[in-house]
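Hey, can you fold this?
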Amino acid sequence: MMILKQLRLSRHLSQEQLAQMSGLSVRTIQRVESGHKASVESLKCLAAVLEVEVSTLNEETFVIDKHALNWHTLPLWLRCWFGFSFLHMHPTRRVAKRIEAVSHASGFLFCLLGFVSEAALAGGLIMLSTAYLFYLLSWQGDRYGIWFDAPVDDAQAAAAYSRFS
């Protein structure tokens, strides 16, 4: 059940942490992640900790078949995006927007430093280009609905974080 591993990693949890939080053994977590069938009780414990439905834990993971016709009909830039594994790691809109904001801020800062050094100006232009690339990729992510983050407000996110910290 690779979805369990992906969910665990997306929440930055080790197998030991997930086992402790769910009340299951580390060996049970390892078995479930390697594809062995889990009991309904174990699935309920894992779903509660990961804040997902039990049915989500039974879902198949999405794997891109690069030999399929659909893959070859995608635009080249989108295939490159898949190729760099940004989408393979369950992208969240929040992370993409954070990268965009950091790239913009550092790009403007380096452009200001460009008055002193040409190298800083070149770095600033590269960072600004990166920011605009992530803006484009975020727009495409919205268009194709690729994001894995659930729409939650800040209060719900803070409450969820405080329960597990």
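Oh, and this one too while you're at it.
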Amino acid sequence: MAFKVDFKLKREKLSEPTENNEAIVVLELFTSQGCSSCPPADALLQQIKEDYQSSVYALSYHVDYWNYIGWQDPFSKSEYADKQRKYNIKFKNRSNYTPQVVVNGKTHFVGSSSAKMNAAIAKYGAIEAVNKIELGKVRVKKESVYFNYKLQGVAANKSLRAILVLDERTTKVKRGENRNRILKNSNIVVAEKRIAIEDLEGEAFINIPNAVEKDEKLNLIILMETQGYDITAATKTELLR
């Protein structure tokens, strides 16, 4: 997958001291509207989003490998299945499965398990983040989101991940394992882009997909991660369109 990055950067060192970074908990749910086991996990993620509005970053990635059953998940992308596969190679897990939750890129479990979800939030919510991301000058121009960022902590051999998240949408599923059900999905990843880190300050952009309607709530989430997919920082903001 090719990534296009737009930079206007100052030359700086890739390391800056940081103190008292807040803990972050990033939940990446791999799900599908074509999977009958996924709605409970989708509902749990929705509940987590409501209970932990600022401290937890909930992301819903819709994979495409259930589409063959008969329902084409409108949010599904092969890139998300590839992302999940990379995680499972890291975890030495034999294959992809849904619903799967990955926490901070470091551990995984069945996404409908509220006990494991709460335990993971408690565990990682007590660990200080390694890095910090500050966003500034976030603006929407036509169909793109532009933003400035400033990083703290060691940034060598790390990258940023810009993510556009649709707050929620309800879908009437007509075929497949969930046929005749009305599904509510939240924190849906509709666009994602990797940004190479060359300096501690920079500017970048990400395009808004045509599938996102003007009146729908959209959030921008920026993650920082290692080459081994460990997430070391996160920040988010609601977009005003």
